[in-house]
User: Fold these one by one.
Assistant:
Number 1:
Amino acid sequence: MLTADEMEGRGLGTEGKVLAKNYIAGCFREIGLQTFDGLDEYFQHFELRISLAIVKATNVVGYLEGSDPALRDEYIVIGAHYDHLGYRPVNGRVVYPGADDNASGTAMLIELARFFAKNPGMMGRSIIFIAFDAEESGLHGSEWFISGNRVVGTENVKLMFSLDMVGMLEANRGIDLRGISTLENGTQLAEKMASAQNLAIRRTTADLPVRTDTYPFGIAGIPSVHIFTGMESPYHSPEDTWDLLDYRGMARITLFMFSFVSRLSGLPELNPSRRFARLQHPWALRFNAGLLGQAGSTYHEYPDDFYRANNVFAFSSGIFFQMHLGYRLTFQQDAMFDYNGSRSPEGTFRRSSLIFPLNLHVNLASSRGIGRFYSITGGYFRHNLRGRDGAEELDFSTTHPGGEWGVNLGFGGEINRIQMATVWRRGITNIAATNGTRIVENGVYFSLGYIF
Ligand SMILES: [Zn+2]
């Protein structure tokens, strides 16, 4: 149904997506889900900006009230995004049916709602069923639900599941429960219940995948689990068609989810795991390492004279370590080989050295786990290896036994695993204390990094 041609790949702004949302709301109505006050029946409308255009989008959401009076004010959210990539106007029209991604999850969402509605005694907590819009363009629907215009308080949402690509069980020989370890004892319970139903769990993780709707919930501190049959799938291609789905597998996952969520909904407490709670803390420590390459130009400055030498090409390369303090501050320690110099009428100065910049990054803007933009301030220590001034070989072990010091300033940005920055380096210590003239290093580098 959701993959039919008239659904137009459920792309943003298409009539097909309107049909899809009405179809889902029709199912919710027939099942008898309750509606939230303040919404347009099951529809939660919102707007998002795609470059210059404002696009309207709609989540479809309803709930079933839990049977336990002590727990029914708490919610478990089961979500699945129903939007997809739409169509491309190639040779007429190429539709992306998005069967595995994510008609499969949407269908499973509807079936789970039906199961729970027929078995009202099977849930202690209340359960929210939500078909998210605008996932493919950046998780807008889930973001809006949990931190935009809230219909329930974030503190009342105890657990979240995203059913995203669940139609390829057999091809992938099991399911992934990504993020299940964000819930205290979640992994053990899931493994026990899955093995009782003979369902293979291929992978359980503690991370928050950034490409599905669990992410905005996880950022809000809510344990969040992505149910996923895997990348062995024709997803994001026009070949992602309904006839390739493993319907028997989907039925098995639906049954597992029904019993698992039912069990969880009745537990006296649903807590974030200790590890996950620690990461939510504003001063949580995280560590990274990566590779760094820099290219730029350097020259020598004569601070006491009206004179400066000319620029020459310089480069550095090496490794770096990062320590993140929450999401505001990052310390980055680099260890690099640096080749720089300066040119004057007397000749060209060249040297190779080891340089150890230590910088503080203050994040001016950040989107957790995706990217950040920051200012750079810090200092460096330089150990000279060898050098040459014109024809003369330099002996740094006599002129600079203690090495050199200097400062760094700059700006940088990171997106996913790529780091880019512009850094200005200026020496404080004298390069050569010859003739009583002070000479210091000065340079600007463009820096490119890869984070492991
Ligand atoms: Zn998806």
Note: The domain at 5-279 is CATH 3.40.630.10 (Aminopeptidase).
Number 2:
Amino acid sequence: MAPDPFVVVGGDAAGLSAASKFVRERSDSRDVVVLERGSWVSYAHCGTPYYVKGEVDSLLDLTTLSPDDVAERGIDLRRGHEVTALAPDHDAVRVAGPDGAFDQPFSDLLVATGATATDGPFDLSPAGAFTLHGMDDAAALRALVTPPGEPLEDGDLPDAVDRARAERYADDPVPDAVAVVGGGYVGVEMAEAFAARGAAVHLFQRPDHLVPSFGPAAAAVLADALADAGVHLHLGGEVTAVRSAGGRVTGVAHDGGSDDPTPLPVDAVLVGVGIEPAAGVAAEGGVALGDSGAVAVDRYGRTSRPNVYAAGDCAEARHVVTGDPTWVPLGLTANRAGRAVGATVAGDHTPTGGVAGTAAVKAFDAEAGRTGLVGEEAAREAGFEPVTETVRAGSRSGYYPGAAETTVTLTADAPTGRLLGGSVAGTDRAAIRIDTVATALEAGLTVAELERADLAYAPPFSPVWDPVLVAAKVLHGRL
Ligand SMILES: Cc1cc2nc3c(=O)[nH]c(=O)nc-3n(C[C@H](O)[C@H](O)[C@H](O)COP(=O)(O)OP(=O)(O)OC[C@H]3O[C@@H](n4cnc5c(N)ncnc54)[C@H](O)[C@@H]3O)c2cc1C
């Protein structure tokens, strides 16, 4: 009898990374079965705002592997199969498939079920109300911003699209006004997308600055870029309700924030108020969750149940700076953890790696990156004695065309001098400079050590003192 397969739940970043690595590395005759409840596999959530904006032509451009590519790798991919339960006392999952329910036994199981977007307190059932978490949301949003009669894409829509949902918006005019609720990275990227499509955009953010985890200095750079492009920013402004009539969004009610408290008429609303780990099936199957609500895992992605692993947006990971379990749902984290679990299940024990929450976002020509513990509040909560400095320095030699102001914030622990985190923002290749800081965090460098780093200098790329080095120099002086 064939041994039970390695079963993976979820056919995107973490799940397919694991399955692909497993088939390359396996030293036994086990199969790998990937159960995906949707139609899409191997897709990039991260590119969906740019598809809505029109910078990406086709949804298929956002996929890495087609179902046929996956099958060619020797992976038994079953789309339209939802795992509804994890048997509490034996190694099998309950699956609802197109031909009914069945039990799928496993030798090892990877839970890679991702996350779900939260609706907040809002009723998002009327036409014109959206979250953005998946390819079908992206298709519907692109239909919303495409003038009636124009095709959504050059050529046919991919088979996997929820066509009925997208076609709901096919004959509607492009919205005149849109409310974006939430100023995290999805809200910022979508504000740009709607504005580029010609809509008047109102972006509401309950805290007093955008992208809170990037800190106020980086957020201000993004806010200026959005305001310059005509986006109405309501910082400190809370949307209290989505208004609708006749099954369509007609406006939002908001508490005013820094602006006029009257209800605002809009034709559509995009709610980006956060996501939650999709850990329900695992938890009901007796798998322990961490404080964050995501699945608790060890450094190999193993959960509290033998032979059950978790990776990606549904799982915690160890923070590079604090060493504590944390939940940072990001793309590289998911791909890397999935790949490591695939290797481990195949027999090559591979740690999933730590996370520093390194992330980047753009708003028109401004961009920002962040990593580690940004700002003093987060660092103090983690038990450090933080000191923070923000500097503004040139991105290239001042005489070289294209030089632009770059804002760098670095935070360090005063007693040890250890670097804890930072952000970089500006208009000239600023976001990617955060990788220098992220690498320093991974290596556990002090600010003095970062200041001595041998970074590249040539006028078209950087001044003699790279902006990150300038910030390290100033912070070191303060320490
Ligand atoms: C709009 C947007 C923009 C983003 N931009 C960035 C970015 O710029 N940079 C970055 O690092 N990250 C970004 N992310 C986050 C990144 O996309 C995720 O971290 C990554 O996709 C997580 O991969 P995953 O495999 O864990 O989960 P997912 O990609 O969500 O995949 C999980 C899969 O599991 C399936 N599934 C769930 N439950 C079941 C079940 N019970 N049975 C069967 N199948 C199931 C789902 O259908 C889904 O296909 C963005 C996310 C969004 C939504």
Note: DSSP finds 13 helices and 25 strands in the chain.
